[in-house]
Amino acid sequence: MAGGGRDAGRSVTSKVLAILEVFEKSRGPLSLTEICGQSGLPMSTVHRLMGELTDWGLLSRGANGRYQLGIRLWELAQNTGRQLREAARPHVQDLFSLTGETAQLAVREGHEVLYIERIYGTKRVPRASRVGGRLPMHATAVGKVLLAFGEDWVRTAYLNRELERPTAFTHANAGLLAAELDRAREQGYATTVDEMRLGACSIAVPVLHTGRVGAGLGLVLPSAQAPGMTRHLAALRGVSAKIERATAHIPLETLLGVHLSGHD
Amino acid sequence: MAGGGRDAGRSVTSKVLAILEVFEKSRGPLSLTEICGQSGLPMSTVHRLMGELTDWGLLSRGANGRYQLGIRLWELAQNTGRQLREAARPHVQDLFSLTGETAQLAVREGHEVLYIERIYGTKRVPRASRVGGRLPMHATAVGKVLLAFGEDWVRTAYLNRELERPTAFTHANAGLLAAELDRAREQGYATTVDEMRLGACSIAVPVLHTGRVGAGLGLVLPSAQAPGMTRHLAALRGVSAKIERATAHIPLETLLGVHLSGHD
DNA sequence: GATTGACTTCCGCTCAGTGGAAGAAAGGTA
DNA sequence: TACCTTTCTTCCACTGAGCGGAAGTCAATC
User: CA–C1' span, B211 to D6, in Å?
Assistant: First the structure.
């Protein structure tokens, strides 16, 4: 019966968010039916909401009737963490110029590394991530740095979880990993070799802010160059220091739209 | 009376969007009161909505209680026009490497240029825009290219508007501008000198896709170098061709979350 | 310890949102 | 052309989610 069998207890907002979530997971444009299927919402409801969202520009609709995220959403989102990205970008570029290797900046988001900036080297290195993408922390150099220099409770919580093994070389043993993180902390940098993607190795240093790790700055290179990786340390540290100086005046919480305190 | 004096006719979604719109316009984090003031919504309503949005991560809340756009929004938005950005980015980087000047890629959004990618040169050039930012079309080289090679109705509609004059050198006369656009079309490139920002000049070429302009590719340099700007044309054209090839397999509408047909 | 301002919670009323169903397009298939 | 299938769009009577005024809490400031 009309209005009676409604999905009780569900707020409108939650439905809108459910729709956005569908787009978060999928690649290309989606048809109305696909959105309904994946969100579990009735078609007429989705149809109405899509209309409102499209009018505003959060979503856009192609000639074939399929929906995709709209450019207005992208524009809006450029304001998120803009200060960090704008301050850091030229320096990440410098790091690339200095080394000629793929350079990247990442932060912790929950139990994963979130890549917020990257300059691609011309060399062929297997790509594991992209800007806006996430990876497990223990399989990447930036991730290890974020764990090693981060707060203890984060590290403890992380090591108590089941650790993924994207490759056969991933260090997934909690005890050994803990020792590796201690070493990283002493040395001031972390590395990986074939741990996330075969053929790629990486090295990273922390970017500190008021004594805490704000981000990780790293390089990705072909595994063949793993032995000589540390020759890039000077560049990494120099650039990291510059980013630290460039962001020192900005409150850490403002840098990214992230809660830094609390146990997620 | 409770529930009686409600803001009739206003959908929940529109309120959520009104809140997001507030963030679109403002710089830093906002307090609840500020959001209420700018959106015109009652405090208890905003408070409840903020709770839901924050839980999901569209917004985040700092220690001081102020709200800002959350990183999840940014992550979500990375999916917008990703194919174009990912395909184009390395090439924009190449353009920077080849020229050493600030390189940028922009598309048309309504009556403005929207910058979607940029690599900063080391030279000091007055900055007028940022990634995710907009500028009037007739005051920028990429904008002129988008007008010159775009559909006729866009151009006609644009020239019938009042044309802003960000500097004293802006070409704001519709007739002269039309002639300039014709010339740009013949020559295959457009330029500006001090037209958007004193001290900066720019040159741009179109990036075509199935015979239409998909985007504009340009360089910004100090005005002192304006006379010799055209020496970068070969690099611009070469890189543009590469981007065209790299995006040829993607339907134009999918490239960006934008409606390309219809009169905005 | 009183005043002010900013935020949070409460709660009964009511209309915006709901979703099933019927209708309209679009896309096959023969 | 007619017929079926799938996908999208519109309609509408019902009702509980959202509403917002008011009262309560908290933290500065005087």
Answer: 34
Better-scored residue on pLDDT, B120 or B264 = B120
The nucleotide lying nearest B43 (C-alpha to C1') is D20
Quick one: which residue's CA is nearest to C11's C1'? B2
Interface of B with A in 209-238 (CB under 8 A): none
Number of residues that this document lists for chain A:
264
pLDDT digits (tens, 9 = 90+) for A131-170: 999 999 999 999 999 999 999 999 999 999 999 999 999 9
The string of DSSP codes covering B110-125 is TTEEEEEEEE--SS--
Inform me whether the C-beta atom of residue B12 falls under 8 Å from chain A C-beta atoms.
Answer: yes
| Mean of per-residue pLDDT scores for chain A | 89
**Per the CB < 8 Å rule, is A14 touching B256?**
no
pLDDT, tens digit, 9 for 90 and up, residues B38-79: 888 889 889 989 988 998 889 988 878 889 999 889 999 998
**Residue numbers in B near A117 (CB within 8 A):** none
Q: Is B98 on the interface with A (CB under 8 A)?
A: no
Does domain B82-256 correspond to CATH entry 3.30.450.40? yes
Give the DSSP letter of residue A58.
S
Question: Residue A239: phi, psi to the nearest 5?
Answer: -65, -40
A45 in Cβ contact with A32 (< 8 Å): no
Contact flag B77-A56 (C-beta cutoff 8 Å): no
* Residue A135, helix vs strand vs coil: strand
Q: Domain boundaries in chain B? A: 12-76, 82-256
**Global model pTM greater than 0.85:** yes
Asked if the model's pLDDT at residue B26 lies above 90, the reply is no
DSSP letters along B182-223, please? HHHHHHT-EEEESSSSTTEEEEEEEEEETTEEEEEEEEEEEG
Tell whether domain A12-76 is in CATH 1.10.10.10.
yes
- Alpha carbon A118 to chain centroid distance? 11
